[in-house]
């Protein structure tokens, strides 16, 4: 495998890094932005989830748009949108401006998440395609790591003695720092070539051969040229692609497989955990500072197990990784549910007197009252203090009141992240880039990614409501049972695509 193709894969998938960075950053940002704008659970959910709703549109059209204009041109536009979103978010003066800025970012990462694996699959040799496409997921988890580390450092140096960082501006710096990788991504994209398979589709044969030779060298490029030309010839007599073609009987099986994996990746709650990581860790009562540092641990686990996935994906195959990972996800989420179900909450008068905010004395009438669930406890806190004061001090209040086995929750969350990082995270995108014939690839990946993003957005939108109305234990139990059922569905239908050319996969799975 040439250094050139590794470089191309890393550059193209930097959009994944920016997605991970944005997703990780927002978990810390909302600890400050929510009380500043006095947001309700619904408004908090919308600020967090609005990029995913925008990504739905981008995912639906970006694949087809890239078939017309080219993968590279759309990716350059994506990098520009990332930079614009970072600037607008940092200077947001209202709740409305903040979510509009994040919607722009959503358009960027929606397109990037579709186009990067598609592009990488189209330039990769079959025997290394899995690990090269998985670089997208590696960049995503590197983005999460960078974001959680950045949040931790900003929070650490936001002290009462600091004149530079304050509760009013620290979240703006958290968001604005994304501008740096966005500009690097924009510049680096000019160093990658156009997709050779796309050039063939546009009948730019000579340019495609030059690109293939640059990427693979003369010997391997000759083999790739033969494979592509044979596939193009087979497609010549077929009609133009329209959306209703995706419902053809011949495509039904691969469409169902893609939909199942695409839905399962998000409906098990991964983005709820990532986007609300700081808030989730606060629920265990470990405190605000420890919640930020736990986010760094979470993202470190993501990086480690993404490397595990890249090592195993072309050795073990796609199917074993997906099945083992999904079983682990179910077990981890159910462990979290069990841990939260045993939590109790009580503020003693001594604990209340130690709380360092002005309104804490209002809680004295609740001293020594014990709660066996988080819903009633948080409702009483909000009723007594008001929503804005509670949101600003929830970490300290929960730390003082919560009695539970926080270690079990941490193990469950880290287990979930680890299992996701070597299975549903990277393998879904690898599988989608392989399953569909080149003629339908852009449209089919776009449609499935649209549904994937819709599920993600809904999970993010309702997660604050779930925690508030259903409670921590029930929320994680629902996610765990969904993963449990998903395991058995995939056990029945998942094919294996390891080590096969894109054209060979088409011959085997597309029913004539």
UniProtKB/TrEMBL annotation:
How is this protein positioned relative to the membrane?
Answer: Multi-pass membrane protein
What the entry lists under InterPro entries is as follows: MFS_dom, MFS_sugar_transport-like, MFS_trans_sf, Myo-inositol_Transporter, Sugar/inositol_transpt, Sugar_transporter_CS
**Can you tell me where the transmembrane regions are?**
7-33, 45-62, 74-93, 99-120, 132-153, 173-192, 253-276, 296-313, 320-340, 408-431, 443-463, 469-491
Q: Which GO terms describe its cellular component?
A: membrane
Tell me where it resides: Membrane
Any idea where the Major facilitator superfamily (MFS) profile domain is? 8-498
The principal location of this protein is: membrane
**Keywords linked to the UniProt accession:** Membrane, Transmembrane, Transmembrane helix, Transport
GO terms for MF: transmembrane transporter activity
Q: Which residues form a coiled coil?
A: none
A Pfam family that this protein carries is Sugar_tr
UniProt family annotation: Belongs to the major facilitator superfamily. Sugar transporter (TC 2.A.1.1) family.
The name this protein carries in UniProt is: MFS transporter, sugar porter (SP) family
């Amino acid at each position: 495998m040439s250094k050139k193709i590794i470089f191309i894969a890393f550059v193209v998938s930097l959009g994944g890094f920016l997605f991970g960075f944005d997703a990780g950053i927002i978990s810390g940002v909302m600890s400050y932005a929510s009380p500043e704008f006095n947001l309700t659970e619904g408004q908090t959910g919308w600020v967090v989830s609005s990029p995913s709703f925008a990504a739905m549109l981008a995912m639906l059209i970006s694949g087809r748009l890239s078939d017309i204009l080219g993968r590279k041109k759309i990716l350059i536009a994506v990098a520009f949108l990332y930079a614009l979103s970072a600037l607008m978010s940092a200077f947001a003066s209202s709740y409305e401006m903040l979510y509009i800025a994040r919607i722009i970012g959503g358009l960027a990462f929606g397109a990037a998440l579709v186009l990067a694996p598609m592009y990488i699959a189209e330039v990769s040799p079959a025997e290394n395609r899995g690990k090269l496409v998985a670089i997208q997921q590696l960049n995503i988890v590197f983005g999460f790591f960078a974001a959680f580390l950045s949040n931790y450092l900003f929070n650490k140096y936001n002290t009462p003695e600091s004149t530079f960082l304050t509760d009013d501006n620290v979240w703006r710096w958290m968001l604005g720092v994304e501008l740096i990788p966005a500009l690097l991504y924009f510049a680096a994209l000019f160093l990658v070539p156009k997709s050779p398979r796309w050039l063939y589709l546009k009948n730019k044969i000579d340019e495609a051969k030059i690109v293939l030779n640059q990427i693979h060298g003369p010997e391997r490029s000759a083999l790739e040229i033969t494979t592509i030309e044979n596939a193009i010839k087979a497609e010549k007599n077929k009609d133009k692609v329209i959306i209703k073609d995706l419902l053809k009987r011949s495509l039904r099986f691969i469409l169902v497989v893609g939909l199942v994996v695409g839905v399962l990746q998000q409906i098990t709650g991964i983005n709820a955990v990532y986007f609300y990581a700081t808030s989730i860790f606060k629920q265990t009562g470990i405190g605000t500072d420890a919640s930020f540092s736990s986010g760094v641990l979470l993202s470190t686990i993501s990086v480690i197990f993404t490397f595990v996935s890249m090592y195993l994906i072309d050795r073990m195959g796609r199917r074993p990784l997906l099945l083992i990972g999904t079983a682990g996800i179910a077990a981890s989420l159910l462990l979290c549910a069990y841990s939260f179900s045993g939590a109790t909450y009580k503020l003693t008068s001594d604990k209340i007197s130690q709380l360092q905010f002005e309104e804490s004395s209002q809680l004295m009438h609740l001293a020594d009252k014990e709660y066996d669930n988080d819903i009633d406890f948080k409702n009483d806190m909000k009723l007594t203090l008001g929503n804005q004061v509670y949101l600003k001090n929830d970490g300290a209040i929960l730390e003082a009141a919560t009695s539970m086995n926080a270690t079990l929750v941490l193990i469950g969350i880290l287990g979930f992240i680890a299992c996701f990082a070597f299975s549903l995270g990277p393998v879904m995108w690898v599988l989608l880039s392989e399953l569909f014939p080149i003629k339908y690839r852009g449209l089919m990946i776009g449609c499935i990614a649209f549904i994937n993003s819709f599920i993600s957005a809904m999970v993010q939108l309702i997660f604050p409501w779930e925690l508030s109305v259903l409670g921590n234990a029930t929320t994680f139990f629902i996610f765990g049972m969904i993963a449990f059922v998903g395991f058995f569905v995939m056990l029945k239908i998942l094919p294996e695509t390891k080590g096969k050319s894109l054209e060979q996969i088409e011959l085997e799975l597309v029913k004539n």
